[in-house]
Structures are given as C-alpha cells and as structure tokens.
Amino acid sequence: MTDISRRSLAMGAGLLACGLAVGARSQQMPPQVAIAVPVPKATPKPLILNPEKVKGLSADLLRNHHDKDYADAVKTLNAVGEELARLDFSAVPPEKLGKLKRDEQAAQNSTVLHEIYFDGLAEAPTQPAGLLAQALSRDFGSLDRWKAEFVGIGKSLASGTGWVILAYAPRDKRLVNSRAENDSMAPAGAVPLLAMDMYDHAYAADYGTDTAKYIDAFMLAIKWTNAERLYREAMRV
Ligand SMILES: [Fe+2]
After folding, report:
1. Cα-to-centroid distance, 5 and ligand 1 (Å)
2. What is the domain extent for residue 156?
3. Does pTM top 0.90 for this prediction?
4. How many Å lie between the centroid of ligand 1 and the Cα of residue 213?
5. What is the CATH number of the domain that holds 72?
C-alpha cells in the first residue's frame, strides 16, 4: 500500500468515526421545540346598543346571544390560535392540523360576522340613505328588489344555521348578497356590510322555528348608518 493510500484510508476512518459521533449526539438531542410566534388576542366587543330598545328582538335574547354565543366564538378563536402557535407544523398529523384550521376559520368568521350583526342593529328604525342607498338601487335594480333577495336567502336557510351577508366586492366594485350555510362560508374577497344571523340561537327564544317573523323583525331593526359607514370604508380597499 502506498503512502497516499494509507493517508486516504486513515482520513476515511476518521470521517466515519466523526460521522458516527455526530449521529450519536443527534439521537440524544431533545425533540425540536416549535418556534413561539405572537398570537393575536381577540377581545369581545361590548354590546354598544341598549337591548331594551331594539324592537322585535327581546333584551334577554340579545344579551344571551352576545354574552354567550358571540363570546364563545371569540374564546374558541383565541384557544385555537394559541394551539396553532405552539405546533411544530412539520410533525403534527395532517388530520389534527386540518381540524384546527377548520375551527380557526369558523371561529374567525363567526367573530367578525357577529360583530357586524350587533353593530348593525338599531335602537330606532333607520332607512338606507346616501351612497349605500344609491349603490343598492344600482346593483339590485331597486331597494325593494335588494330586500326581496336578502329576505329570500334568509328563508332558504331553514336548517337553523347560516348567515345572510350584504357585502361589497372591491374586485367587481359592486354589492352582493351572499348565502353562507355555516360560519366557514363567506364571499371571497368581499367586505361584509350587514349580516343577518340565521343560527337558531339568534331567534328561537323569541320566535321558536318561525324564521319568517324573525327575519321581518331583523329587517325593521337594521341600523343603516352602520352599513353605510362600512360601505364607505370598503370602497377605499
Ligand atoms: Fe349568532
């Protein structure tokens, strides 16, 4: 064996020994710790209206809806967000990640839509006015035609879940009425201006299964000034 062959053999043995040592050390290392990321913490918005003054919806119904159902959505959103922040995405089973992401989207939508729902209720009747009234006539033909579609969508959600959403779509620069059968469904790329909650917790205590009466009450209780404020903001998106 030449000197060069002996040196190569010795170097190879050294590298092998070094590799084995590194492998042994890596096996002894603890599992990789997931990187902690900041978690946005949602806080329930207070009920700014006086529930005693909303016609057609009882104060008890509105308080329970706000303090329990809406608050539960915010709690779920925060709990899921914390769990996701601790996860090692490279190791979590896909089924577990899938469930967490479904829950996150449902809780996020539920939180946002409930806030628009409560902000959209008035203590005294209001009417569509200004730019929003013009846009409703432009995009639906007339206010009555807009209302007929919005109400009809509500009546089509007869299973005790879902939302009817009036939204502005910046991509198309127009208003749309949207039908969401559950919290996870919402129009992509559109900004909600008005949301009618069709989950039975929103009406059953006052109206039982008579969704038509609940829808009539909601339509008379809309705070149009809030929808118009959101419309003006959405047009700047
Ligand atoms: Fe609700």
Report:
1. 79
2. 130-234
3. no
4. 17
5. 1.10.287.990
